[in-house]
Write a structure and sequence with these properties.
about 425 residues, alpha+beta, 5-stranded mixed beta barrel, 14 strands, disordered C terminus
């Protein structure tokens, strides 16, 4: 039996209970698992559900307990006990804790359509206050005609053919998709374009063991607004191939959908890796009014997303920024340029610093430009500001994405990989009247 902490409230009054535990009796619109499969077996990190009641049609709840994630179904009316109301960047949400619980009061959704409110309330064994709220929620759902939005099957099961040791050329079809629902239903290799908003940047930390309490560090939006956000460059940047975007350090590489380091580069004509500092592969979670979708982002696409800021420049400026906060007397006299410093760096960048700096110097000679770091403009800090702007949920307009669809992969293994991103141009026709 779960003890109750806090009152049963309406969603419209959640702002009055920030930081406190409450009970919520709500209708579940949709359930969206934020997941990542490791080579040893998949694990769902959390599940975001969108709920509503008779006072507020839409509200977000984050489920962190495994048993709760597996029991929630779109279209149910549930009682969430002992959930905490939190506020993050002016957005309210409820989140579960260790002693939270979920109780299904009306299941399945068909019973909401076939039965009346009196019959459904009589079947539930809850208190008088909960029954009153349950009746309001049921009547609200039946009156407004809300329906459950079930997870769309992204692809059909197909008969696998015998594997070949060569690749057949396939036509590169280009498709225009008006919504993420249609993107998820693509079942053939192609390129697709669509508009969507960025909801979250998810970095799977697989190169070092972490405790369950550190799972939130994989979600970049929360990390950017904490005191530990300054070391984000160390986690998001590593040594790898700047062409194919594969990490090449077995200890510090992030592998999304891969169990081993690639022996050759698929993007290079000579099949050799171009080793430098790169952005680790990460998942970009997109959303629109119809659906949510994970998008794999590798180094070249990440540079376009981050305003053409290369990982090398970010890390070198981050190293100077970190040294300025904690100066080293030995290195203080030789700081004219990041490429001339000899301070220590993470293992993920040790092998590439000298080569990267020499290649950058060669490029500067070819273009005749002087790219010496201006101490008044720290690229690392500019990069952090850009990251914060990208994850401004519900405040940014949709972006235009171009993705490559690999129908042979699962969604969490890079079925949708980002190629480029742009800001759409909306033309307004003003009336002259």
């Amino acid at each position: 039996m779960t003890s109750w902490y806090g009152p049963l409230i309406d969603l419209s009054k959640a702002s009055h209970h920030v930081g406190h535990f409450v009970q919520l009796l709500v209708f579940v619109h949709r359930s969206t698992p934020v997941q990542y499969k490791l080579s040893k077996g998949g694990e769902i990190i959390k599940t975001d559900i969108q709920v509503g009641d008779d006072t507020l049609p839409f509200f977000s709840v984050s489920l962190w307990k495994k048993e709760m994630r597996s029991s929630v179904v779109s279209g149910d009316v549930v009682l969430l006990q002992n959930v905490k109301i939190t506020e993050f960047r002016d957005v309210l949400e409820a989140r579960t804790v260790d002693w939270s619980s979920l109780r299904r009061l009306v299941h399945p959704y068909d019973s909401l359509v076939s039965k009346g409110a009196d019959e459904l309330v009589a079947e539930c064994k809850v208190g008088i206050v909960a029954k009153g709220k349950l009746r309001k929620v049921i009547e609200w759902v039946q009156r407004t005609g809300y329906t459950a939005v079930h997870n769309v099957e992204a692809y059909d099961c197909q008969i696998r053919r015998l594997s070949r040791n060569w690749k057949l050329p396939e036509p590169n079809k280009f498709r225009e998709c008006p919504s993420l629902t249609e993107v998820l239903q693509l079942t053939s290799h192609c390129k697709a374009t669509f508009s969507a908003s960025i909801g979250e940047i998810f970095l799977p930390i697989t190169w070092r063991p972490i405790d369950e309490s550190e799972n939130e560090n994989m979600f970049i939006s929360k990390r950017l607004y904490t005191s530990g956000g300054n070391n984000l460059a160390e986690d998001l940047i590593c040594t790898g191939c700047r062409l194919c975007g594969s990490p090449l350090d077995p200890e510090h590489g992030s592998t999304v959908g891969k169990n081993s380091l690639p022996l050759y580069c698929e993007k290079s004509s000579d099949r050799l890796h171009a080793v430098s500092l790169i952005y680790r592969p990460f998942m970009l979670y997109l959303w629109d009014e119809s659906q949510h979708m994970p998008l794999l982002v590798k180094n070249n696409a990440a540079e376009k997303l981050f305003g053409s800021i290369k990982a090398e420049r970010v890390y070198l400026c981050y190293r100077d920024y970190k040294r300025d906060k904690h100066p080293d007397p030995v290195c203080f006299g030789r700081r004219s340029h990041p490429c001339t410093t000899t301070s220590t760096s993470p293992k993920a960048a040790e092998t590439g610093d000298a080569e990267d700096c020499s290649s950058d110097e060669h490029k500067r000679k070819e273009t005749g430009q002087n790219e010496r770091c201006n101490k008044n403009i720290n690229v690392f800090l500019v990069w952090l500001v850009l990251l914060k702007m990208l994850v401004q949920q519900r405040k940014n307009s949709p972006l235009r994405f171009e993705v490559a669809v690999n129908a042979s992969l699962d969604t969490e293994y890079g079925r949708f990989e980002m190629i480029s991103v742009s800001i759409p141009c909306f033309k307004n026709i003003w009336s002259l009247e």
